[in-house]
Amino acid sequence: MVQPLDINRETPSQTAGPYVHIGCIPTFAGITTIYPEDLGLSPFSDGAKGDLITITGSIFDGTGWALRDAMVESWQADAAGNYPGQPGADPSVTGFCRFAADKDSGEFTLKTIKPGPPGSQAPHIALWVVARGINTGLSTRIYFPEDDHGSDPVLTRIEQRHRVDTLIAKKTGDARYRFDIRLQGEGETVFLDM
C-alpha cells in the first residue's frame, strides 16, 4: 500500500540547511570544481572610489548561539550614493556581495566601500540572511553611526523607535564596524518586509 504524502513535512527545498552553501557559494562549501571563485566574492574591484571599510558580526539565534551556517547577501550604493547602472555609478563597484559565517566562530566579515546616501536615504547596506531554520530569507539593513539618519524614509517608519538602534553598526576602530544580527529575543534586529 502506498503511503499518503505528508504535505506538512519540510523538504530540502523548504529550508536553507547546507544546501544554500552548496548552491550559492560552492567553493566555501569545499566544492572547488565548479567555479574558480564564488559569485559575489567582493562588492568592489580595484580602482573603486571611496573609503574601504570592514564590517564584522555574528548572527545569533534566540538562545544566544552564533549561527555557523548562515549565508548573507549584501547590496549597496557606491561612495557617491549611486547604484550600478545609474548615471555616474562607479564601474568598479558592483554593490553585491555574498558571504558566509565562519564555521568555527560564527563570525562574518564584509570588506567593502562605505556607501554614500542614495537619494533621500541615509547611507546603508541592505542585507538578506538565510540559515538553518529560516525558511524565508530575512531582510535588514546596516546604517552607520556617524551619518544623519533623521529623515531616512525606512528608519522613520519603524514604530518601535527603541529598536532603530538594532540597525546601526557600532564603530570599533578606524574604518571598522561591528554589526550583530539577533533573530529573536532581547535586542532582536529589525527585519524589513520586502
Which CATH architecture would you pick? Sandwich
Query: Which parts are unreliable, with pLDDT below 50 for 5 consecutive residues or more?
Result: none
- Write down the Rg: 18 Å
Decide which structural class fits the backbone: mainly beta
Please identify the top-level CATH class: Mainly Beta
**Overall average pLDDT:** 88
* Rough outline: globular
Distance N terminus to C terminus? 45 Å
Strand content: 25-35%
Major β-sheet annotation? 5 strands, mixed
Number of domains: 1
What is the CATH topology classification name?
Answer: Protocatechuate 3,4-Dioxygenase, subunit A
Helix fraction bin = under 10%
Tell me about this structure.
The protein is mainly beta. The protein has one domain: Protocatechuate 3,4-Dioxygenase, subunit A (Sandwich), CATH 2.60.130. It has one helix and nine strands; from the N terminus they run αβββββββββ. Strands 1, 4, 7, 8 and 9 form a five-stranded mixed β-sheet that branches. β5 and β6 form a beta hairpin. The longest helix is centred in the N-terminal third of the chain and has 6 residues, at 19-24. The protein is globular. It starts with 18 loop residues before the first helix and ends in a 12-residue tail after the last strand.
